[in-house]
Design brief:
34% of the residues lie in helices and 24% in strands. The chain is of the alpha/beta class. It folds into two domains: 7-81 and 158-256, P-loop containing nucleotide triphosphate hydrolases (Rossmann fold, 3-Layer(aba) Sandwich); 92-156, no CATH class. The strands form two sheets. It has a six-stranded mixed beta sheet, sandwiched between helices. Strand 9 (208-212) and strand 10 (219-223) form a beta hairpin. It is globular, with a radius of gyration of 18 Å.
Length: 258
């Protein structure tokens, strides 16, 4: 069941959102709450509207109708309260790691010395020290994605929107990113909206999982993983509850897989 909570409890609230592309109805009367300080995953069949919903919340796409409220304010477009981490990294190829990470702050008019100090802190936090003056083409896929994540963190947005951020890296790097993400959720006091196609990934990283139906997309089910959330990151995948929730979600989705 989709339990609607008080709007003040949520960083993001989506109410009765529709999105049409000409004759295609992508979202239909979709309502969903994103609790403050938690990570919510959007999970569902391919082309079910996950990225469309994320872009509407980011202010990158207008909804056909309905309302999106971020920290109590209806959104009318992009804003400094939200930062987007793209699947394809979206780095500036002509800019160094330091310049890429500081770019959002540069657009906001932050002085060079201040924005570079902030960027250097986050570069160090994600393990990229020594690569400040490298360019994207000199980095591995995993390192480029760290730059993209670090750029989003550096602007100190309260809501981070992540569109399949780990899909372009190898499995070992992906698992490390998932562990890092759990630590970010724990320590950064931000709200994370996370799109993924991976059931296992969604259950591993999420406080809340929203299952979306095929187009026109609506919320089918809300799942909130329980006791294993507080376990050591290395123990989660062996927890019986984790395994049961993975199986439960697959049973819900398998009828939509061709």
């Amino acid at each position: 069941m989709n339990n609607i909570t008080n709007i003040t409890d949520n960083a993001v609230t989506v109410r009765n959102v529709y999105k049409n592309y000409d004759e295609v109805e992508a979202l239909r009367d979709l309502s969903l709450d994103f609790p403050r300080g938690q990570l919510t995953s959007l999970l569902g069949p391919s082309e079910c509207g996950k990225t469309t919903l994320l872009k509407i919340i980011a202010g990158l796409l207008p909804a056909t109708s309905g309302e999106v409220v971020v920290n109590g304010q209806p959104i009318t477009g992009p804003g400094p309260d939200r930062a987007f981490v793209f699947q394809d990294f979206a780095l500036l190829p002509w800019a160094s790691v330091l310049r890429n990470v500081a770019f959002g702050l540069e657009l906001r008019g932050v002085a060079k010395s201040e924005r570079e100090a902030i960027a250097e802190k986050y570069i160090n936090d994600v393990g990229l020290s020594g690569f400040e003056h490298s360019y994207p083409h000199e980095l591995s896929g995993g390192m480029r994605q760290r730059v993209g994540l670090t750029r989003a963190l550096s602007v100190d947005a309260k809501v981070l929107l992540m569109d399949e951020p780990f899909s372009a890296v190898d499995e070992q790097t992906r698992r490390k990113f998932q562990e890092d993400l759990l630590n970010l959720v724990k320590h950064e006091n931000k709200t994370f909206l996370f799109v993924t196609h991976s059931i296992e990934e969604a259950v591993y990283v999420s406080d809340q999982i929203a299952i979306l139906l095929p187009r026109p997309s609506r919320v089918s089910e809300i799942i909130r993983p329980g006791g294993f959330r507080n376990k050591d990151v290395n123990s989660i995948r062996r927890d019986p509850e984790y395994l049961d929730i993975v199986d439960q979600i697959w049973a819900s989705l398998r009828t939509y897989v061709e």
